[in-house]
Amino acid sequence: MRELANEVAWRVQPLEVGSGEGVEVVSQPPIPSWLIFADEGGVGLKLAKVLKERGDRTLIVSAGGVYKQLESEHFQINPSQPEEFVRLLDEGLGGDAVGRVVYLWGLDQLTSHTEGESVASAVNTCGSVLHLVQALANKARKNSSPRLWLVTKGAQSVGVNNLPLQVQQSPLWGLGRVIALEHPELRCVRLDLDPLGDDESSLVDEVLAEGQEDQVGYREGVRYVARLVRYGSQVTEAVGMNEPFQVKISDYGILENLTVKPMTRRLPGPGEVEVQVRAVGLNFRDVLNALGMLREYTEQMGIANALDLPFGGECAGLVVAVGENVSHLKVGDEVIAAQTIGSLASHVIANAEFVVLKPQQLSFEEAATIPTTFLTAREIRR
Questions:
Q1: What is the CATH number of the domain that holds 32?
Q2: Which of 191, 207, 230 is the last residue of a domain?
Q3: Domain boundary, last residue among 212, 230, 248
Q4: SS3 label, residue 87
Q5: What is the model's pTM?
Q6: Cβ count within 10 A of residue 289
Q7: How many CB atoms sit inside 10 A of residue 361's CB?
Q8: CA–CA distance from 227 to each of 10, 134, 353 (Å)?
Q9: Domain span at residue 167?
Q10: Confidence of residue 28 (pLDDT cuts 50, 70, 90)
Q11: Cβ(234)–Cβ(288) under 8 Å?
Q12: How far is it, in rounded angstroms, from Cα 261 to Cα 194?
């Protein structure tokens, strides 16, 4: 079934002037009106300032307890009250059509919240987007539909970094995909900003571009777009078809942080062999390590960084190099290897004393399941 599966991959794609995927800010004609659901961090206010300077009309919307007009072009609404979104569209713009809608309230969801607070915040955020979309859809029956941007920061695993995902913002992406399917007229764009980067420049560039991309991420000034690729193809793209690799984790906590990294092979020393791994046994210890549940133990072993954590402890494969003082194995032997720490990789160095010939009737996959299970059983019976 693997050959039928696909996955999302992030590809670098700059905004190019004149390509239809982006235009310079100065050459873009004024938009009739912008509806900016401004975050508490000030990103929305800075966006509004840039848009006003180029002649666009902006209406800023803040979250609050009751519907209130704070300034001539600044309103406050209750995110949980759908009728206030309808009232905002009717009264706030004075009958003008909405040209663009930029939703930034999702940026206010912080990782410092407790689990319960994060869940409640995510529910409230998605609920307010639902009320917004319903109001826009109702309004669109009389006017042309605006374009909608849902903005997050660090909610997607884009590029290569060691930063933890802002998973409390991720539900917006799921909701955004539903909106794109059920309300294609809104041309809903999901935009994930760099948690360490310049929010304003990439945000302004993206919302002013009349591009076709609806899933975009920025990391270290680089623009990425989402593509559907064959499952597993990212492994070979990340390290090359024939380059040695190993599985690493960028940070503890979630399995999505697992990634493939290039590795440097070394010659086996005395009493060692190098095994080209064909199958590896996945143990529950590997899962606990990835989740950080054995962190105290691994730190006592001298592993201070998540990237230094090895995965895999048993495997089956082919002997490709033999060190001195090894007489029972030769290059080309099909073997089973135990105590191969770090064997979730293309190659691993193993102590020859823990390597035996694989029975011909066993596949590599079957053989990789044997060492730890049967060694554990043997020790228990002793």
A1: 3.40.50.11460
A2: 230
A3: 230
A4: helix
A5: 0.63
A6: 21
A7: 6
A8: 6, 29, 46
A9: 2-230
A10: very low
A11: no
A12: 22
